Amino acid sequence: TAQTQLPRPEEIQELVRTGLSACGVDFDSLLSAESSGTLPVRSPITGQTLGHLPGDTPDSVSRKIAAAQAAFEQWREVPAPVRGRVVQRWGRLLTEHKEELAGLVTVEAGKTPSEAAGEVQEMIDICELALGQSRQLYGKTLPSERPGHRLMETWHPLGVVGVISAFNFPVAVYSWNTALALVCGDTVVWKPSELSTLSAIGASALLRRAAEEQGAPADLATVLVGDRGIGELLVDDPRIALLSATGSVRMGREVGPRVAQRFGRSLLELGGNNAAIVAPSADLDLALRGVVFAAAGTAGQRCTTLRRLIVHSDIAEELTERIVAAYRTLSIGSPTAEGVLVGPLINEAGFRKMQESLEAAVAQGGEVLCGGGRVLAEAAPEAYYVEPAVVRMPGQTPIVEEETFAPILYVMEYTDFDAGVELNNAVPQGLSSAVFTSDLAEAERFIATSDTGIANVNIGTSGAEIGGAFGGNKETGGGRESGTDSWQAYMRQATNTINYSGELPLAQGVEFI
Ligand code: UN1
């Protein structure tokens, strides 16, 4: 159901003004002092352009990287638990201004207030995790083969980390990287998506405030404003020790080799094409809710969005009917309106891609069971609202193997469980997957054989907690961010041999002078 109430342009302006000013940034001077700007700031809610920002230039990027490097020289000397206080303070500021920052995310990414607040909550959570991590940057100690020797492993700050992030999680993904990088002693230069620059400016301003309050160098966190060309400067700059990039597989295919060419380190978080298997023993009420949130939530624009439903043929009809019925009750419209669950697609390109994929699906034997069409086109001709689609497919055809960043759920059937898992695995991407089952052996078998970086049981593919490592395999890029051992990507590892024997025995029994 389409919810026709759209905000007036002034309401959007107000959300932006309040959001930025809570972060200590004056919107009017940001736009007016920089009226020569060329980078449009737009909201997908109405499609309106809020103004133009001046972009960075190759010179200003180079200066910012130099400043980040100078900040690194100081920052690396600060004890890690003391570094932790900056992220702790950032977390507190984020808690204080959660709603206002979420407002910016709503304006630029079109997320509902609940999902936008959830995104800021991820930032707060990672700050807490990183604070604890700052006292746990531990290495191993090992027995040496030589008498009077000891081996150990130590971890050291790496350098300047470049972060490239996408519009759909305009602030959380940055914070996963940044909170950890900072406690690891690194400094960060961030190139956010040009579609969500204001959220980035706000989030980063709060971090710089936290740094200043704690007497840390403010240049430990810098934002670059610009489009892809500006991001490429980070990719190719030898001063960027680690490049952490979130985006499409196409982007990663370009970025990975370019960073490798200069022997830089990269952490890639690319596309997903996530599936859920629903077995006959599943609790269908639970599966239904899990599927609908994962497939239609965030208007299908999460990298963890559920795109493929692999359902046992005994329950396929019942479950599909219930999903279609649930989809019909979803309220679509401006995320600023009460009760809306599905906001807009990011832009016209996203909408066109969705239409093309639906056409391809039909051409490949698919049957659109519901949704797919545009709504609110008259009320908001510059905005792209769609009804989430459910498409029954005769099998895993080429279009199903692609990630379309829009709410399309392809439904396929299985009869043999292992064949179902094979379908799950038979796509190039490997981010997230899920099984709904009450059969313990099936659940374990799924965990053992699903080839994705995240594999869930009785819960959807999206909405991961930050405590776990986040990332995927195959074309998803192999990077791991946020929890468990992900911090190690942001540090330089050294193996140290310490000799307290007073002799100099060589390893492997080699004799020399
Ligand atoms: C993304 O879409 O890039 O697991 C990240 C989730 C969120 C993060 C998604 N915690 O859906």
Automatic annotation (TrEMBL):
Positions annotated as active site in the UniProt record: E269
Organism: Brevibacterium daeguense
Oxidoreductase found in the keyword field: yes
Entries under InterPro entries matching the protein: Ald_DH/histidinol_DH, Ald_DH_C, Ald_DH_CS_GLU, Ald_DH_N, Aldehyde_DH_dom, ALDH7A1-like
Family, per entry: Belongs to the aldehyde dehydrogenase family.
Domain of life assignment: Bacteria
Keyword NAD: yes
Entry-linked Pfam families: Aldedh
Keywords: NAD, Oxidoreductase
Subunit structure: Homotetramer.
EC category: oxidoreductase
Aldehyde dehydrogenase domain segment(s): 35-493
EC number: 1.2.1.3
Official protein name in the record: aldehyde dehydrogenase (NAD(+))
